[in-house]
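Quick illustration, no need to memorize.
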Amino acid sequence: MHTAAAVARSRELFDSGVTRPLAWRLEQLGNLRRMLTERREDFIAALSSDLGKHRTESVMTEIAFVTAEAAHLERHLAAWIRPRPVAVPVVLQPARAWTELTPLGVVLVIGTWNYPVQLTLAPLAGALAAGNTVVVKPSEHAPATSAALARWVPEYLDGAAEVVTGGIPETTALLAERFDHIFFTGGQAAARVVMRAAAEHLTPVTLELGGRCPAFVDETADLATTARRIAWGRFVNAGQTCVAPDYVLAAPEILDALQPLIVDAITSMFGEDPAGSASYGRIVDDRHFERLAELADSSTVVHGGQRDPGSRYFAPTLLRPAPGDAILGEEIFGPLLPLVAVSGQDEAIRMINADPKPLAVYVFSADDRVRSSFAAETSSGALAYGAPAAHVSVPGLPFGGVGGSGMGAYHGEHSVRTFSHERASLDKPLWPDTFGLAYPPYGKAKDKLVTTLMSFAGRAPGLPKILRSKARRFRARES
């Protein structure tokens, strides 16, 4: 598809004004939900083809996730976009002020491959809810899902969303166009390219990146439950999840107890041989498979490690790396889980803070002092106690990173605000013209009155009786 033509059509539709009414926005959200319901099997087949996802996983983490997000937006949108009154200082009375969320215009959403439905359509839903038109660029690394999006999005969201497929050349051509907001999900290297392109048009960006998400476990945690939750968070989607726990930090004796429990959890979820489990996914492509193989081979595997390049199967794998191992220096994005020994919470926090800021930190501890330490002494996109990745499904929470893990946030009302401009509005009647106090010429009387008025700045609206009397006497004297 010609990129310039897609952007031009989106711009023309937005400029027509048709996207601004609440009814249009709700209609698009309803159409998005209808698409995911009526074409569910097509998307399930595409996700199975691209990532080996089981249908239950596809419904739970992709299709139902976006359906619930769209429904949440529909339910609350009218209240979120209602103008909000703002208090006016006494020096400007009489007047009224308010803010309102206004659409930005044409939004570019660049999706990614690991959750190619969720991470493409959830930001699309937010952009439509905010009254924008959208150009969608699905990931070429999930070709079946990209093809399904290209087929069905134009049919169900006629004109509201344009889909541009392809690889780097098409993305580069899109980034050369002028947009009113760019939403990108992916890695840091590509994010730098996006930011450089956006700077040419001074286009604001939202960057949803990654980062090494640590999990800390101490002796107060229920280790059996902790093991199951960590295993699920790490190995769902074959570990290809940006909010998966990247490594586990714990005292040596806790790791020794936790390791067999994680092995038991893996067996319970995927069987003795996960290669034969329909519930266990596959690595997205050969390049990522080879990268993971190198990481595993450069460290100490204590469980798993089996792999098949032909099917891109890579077993759930536990490692006990040595300091300086390559696996401790980058985001893994695969089914490898390093278990890293620390002396306690203080060393764990120092290790976390030595890395770029993570997308999430997970703390498994019943000790309030430990929890408070992580809250006060670390910086991350999210902080969760007792459950990895689950915060993503809470629609009222913002989802996003900080520093190297991202810029900006979305989901629910945060999506509507991300894709809107909060415009300031003021209405001051022409009579009485209290601006007369600000007009030259200035003199002692006016200086005294202005000084008195300014001393009331920030107080409740409405001129105090004594000031109203002074203002009347001043205006009478001036006339």
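The longest helix spans residues 55-80.
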